[in-house]
Amino acid sequence: MTFRLSPVWWPALALASPVVAPWLFIRHRRFQKERAQSAELNRIRISHAEPLDLPELDFLELTVLVEWKTDEGFMGDAGVSYLFKTDVGSMLYDVGFGPTRPALAHNAAKLDFNTDQVDALAISHLHLDHMGGMSAQRSQQVTVSDELMPSQAKPCFLPDRAEAKGFKAELVKKPRLLTAGIASTGPLARSLFILGHTEEQALLARVKNRGLAVFTGCGHPTIEVILEMVEHLSSEPLYALGGGLHFPVTGGRGNRAGIQFQTILGTGKPPWKRITDEDLSQAIAAINAAGPKKVYLSGHDTCDHALDRMKRQLKAETNVLRAGATYRL
Ligand SMILES: [Zn+2]
Ligand SMILES: [Zn+2]
Predict the structure, then answer these.
(1) 251-282 as b/e, with b when 16 or more CB fall inside 10 Å?
(2) pLDDT in tens, 180-215
(3) Rounded to an integer, what distance in angstroms lies between the CA atom of residue 111 and that of residue 109?
(4) Which end of the chain has fewer CB atoms at under 10 Å, N or C?
């Protein structure tokens, strides 16, 4: 178990405690209120969700542009960008850290990918590792490098209000078909202690002779809530589940200056509480109860310990996604 905040910071934290402690107290009260509001919002959204008329796809293929683990020759990063192709079109899901880090541009060039090849972009949620980096998050503007900008503006489906440079920003308010036969769960909420109210949409599609495929970004709303929504959207059996589940149990990815940001900022708990093995056990039980045949885990927000446990304890055939690899579902 590693320190989430390096001991180097402890004297500074002790010095700042007269300011930090009252702030944490006030923030915690707001967090408890927001957490209850998010849960209520999700409950209403799920109970009001109407089944979607999902087209039956001949195939669904995922090529991973950005992930923590990689195939040889590809760059890894603590962000996500997935390219989905179906027999009726294609869609890019998330743009990693966008132009602020080299992984997306490097891997896209290696795969000969540009956004003119897709019908639309969808963003799982408005965090830097999915919408194009820190300045993209601060300015609430999805950002890709000029080379990856489409020559004609195409839709960018968003779970919350934001802009998208070079794209036509479109707010997804509830579950609906997006493009290429792929649908969105609509926004699902989670209150994060420091990052605040977060809306995230997962993708779902129906593949012939298989069933449903569901993909998440960071999995902030929790996999339990996402799967509950999916159950309301389709009676098809769950075939494949993939993407981020946010389990930095023993440590985060992309740590900077001795701070494990993922274990402190994105957890849905106060910063003094860790994500635990018990939390992971609950998620594993929920996934096993949903019974997918295949699971495609993201290592971008989940530590190796959690990935290993899931590989051992999930009943499904379980893979860890790698940048540069293509998965046919
Ligand atoms: Zn993430
Ligand atoms: Zn996130």
Answers:
(1) bbbbbeeebbbbbbebbbbebeebbeeebbee
(2) 999 999 999 999 988 889 999 999 999 999 999 999
(3) 5
(4) N
204's tokens: 């779902």
Instruction: Give distance in angstroms: CA of 79 to centre of ligand 1.
Output: 6
Distance in Å, CA 27 to ligand 1 centroid = 23
Q: Burial level of 114, CB count in 10 A (0-12/13-18/19+)?
A: middle
Measured from the alpha carbon of residue 67, the closest ligand is 1
- Which pLDDT tens digit goes with each residue over 222-266? 999 999 999 999 999 999 999 999 999 887 777 777 777 777 777
Please state, rounded to an integer, the average pLDDT across all residues of the chain: 94
Distance 138 CA to ligand 2 centre (A): 14
Three-state DSSP at 83 gives: strand
User: Mind listing the pLDDT tens digit for each residue in 115-124?
Assistant: 999 999 999 9
**Residue 302, strand partner residues:** 247
Dist CA 308 CA 312 (whole Å)? 6
pLDDT of residue 231: 97
User: Which residues, in sequence order, are bridge partners of residue 200?
Assistant: 125, 188
Å from CA of 171 to ligand 2 middle = 18
* 3 state DSSP class of 293: coil
283 touches 33 (CB < 8 A): no
Tell me how far the alpha carbon of residue 160 lies from the centroid of ligand 1, in angstroms: 16
CA of 60 to the centre of ligand 1 (A): 22
- Measured in angstroms, how far is the CA atom of residue 14 from the centroid of ligand 1? 30
**Amino acid 149: pLDDT:** 94
Ligand lying closest to the C-alpha of residue 216: 1
pLDDT surpasses 90 at 18: no
Q: Closest ligand to 66 CA?
A: 1
